[in-house]
């Protein structure tokens, strides 16, 4: 089996109604964009992959990550990173604590701080460790959110319309940042969106869902 | 699991208690040597010469207190919603709700009694040099009792209405109805109220059942000869002659039956009002004649708040008053000697109050969180059930059962009894915010490799700190205010600030009443202040947590 994220005959149902079915393989460093109207089940597909499917839906099919079957693993052991529309920074933690939350426990304290500061600096947020996330701008929060996910060392990256809340200029920037980082860490990326520009920026195959 | 626990805590004692009153009412009471069924207790109840007026009182106080509270609370919402004061009103409702009924009732006494503040203020005009000889408090018609209930029920109903408003989408309904020619009051009644009413029905029944069967407020403000049924049941329960408990049990069942009859009547009334509303709507009535009452409705609501607050100030004043002659508005001297004189009793009672309140609120919070974490929930009425079934209907049964089993009431049993009333309020207070929490935070947490327990302890609970501590404070305040469970289940061995203050009511030592009531008030309110302050201190550097 190949490295990357594999979806073999995955089907999502709401009740008895089939919403979508996918059979695909996303190799490391590649991207796949799923486009479709809201309600087409594309976000639900991501929930299934991360292991947090709403009980109102049913799903079947296999999910593999670097050849290993993960669809029966608990959500927190799947090593799949996800970014949502909202940055979902934990409001009760500092920026640094947010980043530290996802970092592996085995990394010693001094190294944690160094890695977090380096990550912050790499996205132009040097010195933001102790900041309150609520005081950051939308673009800054999006960058923190990305770094939080990347520091947790995922083996695949899912994007659930993560740019749709940002305004036009910012969207371009953040988009580039996300895809560059994903490519640099050669992560397989699965993007769901209804924005054609997002899909083009992702640079991979595009799968269209019709209702 | 959590569901079963909630049912056990809420429904278990109610059912056990109801069985516990039915058996002795039918003459079966082994602890008193009666192991044969008989109609004697019921006949004894009917032979009581105060029965007719007690039944009348229970119905009239219940209906008047409920109708007046609903009218004022709904009218106040309709007339104030657009006002800039509305947000401030909302922020004081929580603490007002925490004020124990007994403290509010004593405040009322100090305000309206012949020697109270109102009479003192009127004295120069009326030429009184001593308190007028009027039976204002404990009047035989229960007017003082109704008023004492209204000042506590209006804040409660307001809070319930406010909780129901978002789902009713009031602002847009009012905009639409205004554009169709309906004034704010008419628009509120015809377009908003129908949606709100569905959600405040259970709270209204709760107010009704409570007003019909309240004991502590009735002991303070209600008629004395004859009593209300609820008070008489308590008297029989406390009688050294334990054979009177059969009669008490029969009275408890009668009280329960009366409440069911009145609630059924309410159901009919609701239908009629609904029909009237439909008739008005289809007829296109603009009800313009209601709009001039806006000012009056605002005044009524404000009067309720002021009465409650000034009454509490009266308590505070009497607690530090030295010599205070009629008709002076203020005491001659102010000192802490009243407090010093009662310090031993105050500290003991405070200790028991705090232990019971802390235990009940802590257990309540843990059970509520377990319950809200579980995916399966219970219908809303199960949570309301122990609040709607009157305490005086089933607590005597619990006591009689304990007696028959040879168990003595102690601290643990009293805490368990408080749980029955604490848990519903904790669940109701916490439920909204707990369920509204954005689950995507959990998804992100899991995606970052955090286990479910780490997400619970490090993300969900800290983010919900503010609602958790306020739910604790509500639970604590509810426990502090409990009178009947402490008295009946404690078997007279447990004495809290509330039972002590109410016991002082008949004695008429105003200064003693005042110090115990003020301490009772503080015991209920201090956790509230902490609940407001703690999140602000802990999250002072986290702006995103300020409206958790």
**Count of runs of 4 or more consecutive helical residues of chain A:** 6
| CATH structural fold name of the largest domain in chain A | Rossmann fold
State the helical fraction of chain B.
Answer: over 70%
Distance between the termini of chain B: 28 Å
- Strand coverage percent of chain B: under 5%
Overall body shape of chain B: globular
Mean pLDDT of chain A: 92
Radius of gyration of chain A: 17 Å
What string gives the helices and strands of chain A in order?
EEEHEEEHHHEHEHE
Q: Rg of chain B, please?
A: 24 Å
Q: Tell me the count of domains of chain A.
A: 2
Overall geometry of chain A comes to globular
Explain this structure to me?
- The complex is a heterodimer of chains A (211) and B (548).
- Chain A is of the alpha/beta class.
- Chain A has 2 domains: 1-79 and 157-164 and 186-211, Rossmann fold, CATH 3.40.50.300; 81-153, no CATH class.
- Chain A has 6 helices and 9 strands; from the N terminus they run βββαβββαααβαβαβ.
- Chain A has helices spanning 42-50, 95-102, 109-122, 138-151, 168-184, 196-202, and strands at residues 5-14, 17-26, 31-35, 57-65, 68-69, 80-83, 156-160, 189-193, 205-208.
- Chain A has a 5-stranded parallel sheet with strand order 6-7-8-3-9, sandwiched between helices. In chain A, strands 2-1-4-5 form a 4-stranded antiparallel sheet, covered by helices on one side.
- The two termini of chain A are 32 Å apart.
- With 548 residues, chain B is mainly alpha-helical.
- Chain B is built from 24 helices and no strands.
- The longest helix of chain B has 39 residues, at 244-282.
- Chain B is globular, with a radius of gyration of 24 Å.
- In chain B, α1 (2-25) runs parallel beside α16 (380-388) and α9 (184-213) crosses α16 (380-388).
- Chain B has 2 domains: 1-38 and 338-548, MetI-like fold (Orthogonal Bundle); 43-335, MetI-like fold (Orthogonal Bundle).
- Chain B starts with a helix and ends in a 10-residue tail after the last helix.
- Chain A binds chain B through residues 47, 50-52, 55, 74-82, 84, 86, 88-92, 94, 101-102, 104, 132-135, 148-149, 152, 154, and chain B through 375, 438, 440-452, 454-455, 458-459, 462-463, 465, 539, 541-545, 548.
């Amino acid at each position: 089996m190949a490295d990357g994220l594999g979806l073999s005959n995955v089907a999502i149902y709401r009740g008895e109604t089939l919403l979508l079915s996918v059979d695909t393989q996303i190799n490391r460093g590649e991207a796949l964009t799923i486009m479709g109207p809201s309600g087409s089940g594309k976000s639900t597909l991501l929930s299934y992959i991360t292991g947090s499917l709403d009980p109102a839906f049913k799903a079947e099919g296999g999910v593999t990550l670097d050849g290993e079957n993960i669809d029966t693993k608990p959500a927190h052991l799947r090593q799949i990173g996800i970014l949502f529309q909202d940055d979902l920074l934990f409001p009760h933690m500092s920026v640094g604590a947010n980043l530290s939350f996802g970092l592996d426990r085995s990394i010693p304290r001094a190294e944690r701080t160094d890695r977090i500061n380096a990550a912050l600096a790499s996205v132009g947020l040097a010195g933001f460790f102790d900041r309150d996330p609520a005081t950051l701008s939308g673009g800054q929060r999006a960058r923190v959110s990305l770094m939080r996910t990347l520091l947790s060392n995922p083996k695949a990256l899912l994007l659930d319309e993560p740019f749709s809340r940002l305004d036009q200029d910012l969207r371009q920037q953040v988009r580039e940042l996300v895809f560059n980082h994903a490519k640099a860490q050669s992560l397989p990326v699965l993007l769901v969106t209804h924005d054609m520009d997002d899909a083009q920026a992702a640079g991979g195959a595009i799968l269209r869902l019709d209702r | 699991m959590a569901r079963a626990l909630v049912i056990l805590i809420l429904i278990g004692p109610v059912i056990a208690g109801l069985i516990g009153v039915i058996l002795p009412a039918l003459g079966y009471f082994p602890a008193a040597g009666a192991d044969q069924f008989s109609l004697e207790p019921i006949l004894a109840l009917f032979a009581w010469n105060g029965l007719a007026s007690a039944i009348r009182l229970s119905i009239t106080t219940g209906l008047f207190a409920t109708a007046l509270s609903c009218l004022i609370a709904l009218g106040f919402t309709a007339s104030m919603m657009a006002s800039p004061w509305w947000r401030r009103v909302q922020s004081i409702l929580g603490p007002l709700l925490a004020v124990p009924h007994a403290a509010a009732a004593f405040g009322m006494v100090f305000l309206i009694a012949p020697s109270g503040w109102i009479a003192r203020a009127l004295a120069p005009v009326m030429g009184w040099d001593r308190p007028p000889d009027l039976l204002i408090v404990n009047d035989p018609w229960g007017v003082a009792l109704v008023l004492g209930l209204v000042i506590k029920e209006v804040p409660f109903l307001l809070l319930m209405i406010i909780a129901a408003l978002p789902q009713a989408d009031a602002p847009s309904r009012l905009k639409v109805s205004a554009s169709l020619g309906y004034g704010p009051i008419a628009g509120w009644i015809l377009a908003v109220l129908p949606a709100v009413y569905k959600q405040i029905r259970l709270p209204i029944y709760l107010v009704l059942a409570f007003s019909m069967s309240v004991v502590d407020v009735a002991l303070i403000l209600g008629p004395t000869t004859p009593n209300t049924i609820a008070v008489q049941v308590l008297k029989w329960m406390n009688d050294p002659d334990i054979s009177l408990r059969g009669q008490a049990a029969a009275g408890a069942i009668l009280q329960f039956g009366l409440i069911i009859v009145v609630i059924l009547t309410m159901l009919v009334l609701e239908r009629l009002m609904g029909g009237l509303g439909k008739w008005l709507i289809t007829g296109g009535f603009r009800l313009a004649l209601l709009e001039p009452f806006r000012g009056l409705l605002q005044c009524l609501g404000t009067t309720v708040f002021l009465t409650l607050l000034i009454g509490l100030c009266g308590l505070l004043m009497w607690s530090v008053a030295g010599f205070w002659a009629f008709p002076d508005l203020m005491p001659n001297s102010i000192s802490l000697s009243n407090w010093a004189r009662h310090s031993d009793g105050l500290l003991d009672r405070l200790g028991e109050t705090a232990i019971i309140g802390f235990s009940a609120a802590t257990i309540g919070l843990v059970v509520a969180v377990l319950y809200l974490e579980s995916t399966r929930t219970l219908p809303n009425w199960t949570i309301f059930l122990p609040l709607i079934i009157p305490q005086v209907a089933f607590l005597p049964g619990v006591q009689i059962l304990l007696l028959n089993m040879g168990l003595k009431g102690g601290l643990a049993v009293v805490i368990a009894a408080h749980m029955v009333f604490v848990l519903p309020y904790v669940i109701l207070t916490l439920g909204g915010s707990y369920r509204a929490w954005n689950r995507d935070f959990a998804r992100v947490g899991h995606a970052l490799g955090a286990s479910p327990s780490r997400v619970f302890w490090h993300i969900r609970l800290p983010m919900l700190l503010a609602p958790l501590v306020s739910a604790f404070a509500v639970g604590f305040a509810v426990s502090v205010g409990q009178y009947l469970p402490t008295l009946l289940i404690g078997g007279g061995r447990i004495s809290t600030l509330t039972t002590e203050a109410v016991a002082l009511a008949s004695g008429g030592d105003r200064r003693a009443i005042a110090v115990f009531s003020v301490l009772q008030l503080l015991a209920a309110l201090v956790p509230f202040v902490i609940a407001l302050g703690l999140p602000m201190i802990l999250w002072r550097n986290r702006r995103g947590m300020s409206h958790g």
